[in-house]
Design brief:
mainly alpha; Arc Repressor Mutant, subunit A; 3-stranded antiparallel sheet; 3 strands; extended
Amino acid sequence: MKLTPMLASFVMHFGEMGSRWGFNRTVGQMYALLVAHEHPLSANDIAEALNISRGNVSMGLKELQSWQLVQVQHQQGDRKDYFRAVGTIWDMAKKVMEERRKREIDPTLSLLRDMLLDQPANDQERYAQQRLQEIHDLLESVTKWTNELQRLSPDKLNTLLKLSSGVGKVLDMKDKFIGKDSA
């Protein structure tokens, strides 16, 4: 399977972005390939398109399955497994946010909670705990906000995104007419 220049560019870029989202470059490329193909692909198709080993494809597919981003499909009369991206682009974004929260935010919140339960031994630790409390509160707020976002339908999320682009202007107008100190 040969990729067109447009698809190759997308797949390579998505691989770089995947490494920022929590999975390695090759797994990102594999996912991009599956997202951009209308029909499911076999592991051999993926290995050939990306010029990577079959073992690397197998490990990457397992990781994508653990993120619940790909699904196995079978084709009648063919013993090979075929893989396709699951759901819509909104579903993908939700899964990535959920997995990042589980892997990064939740352990951090747990650590912060434990540290905030300790009695400070001196002024430096008291100050540090105040700062840790601020970090904890911010992460808790972001977690609650993302949980609420994940409950919304794609249409409502789209509407919210469009509305949010004007929120800064509304807040600036409020500050101008009411004053910054009255908030």
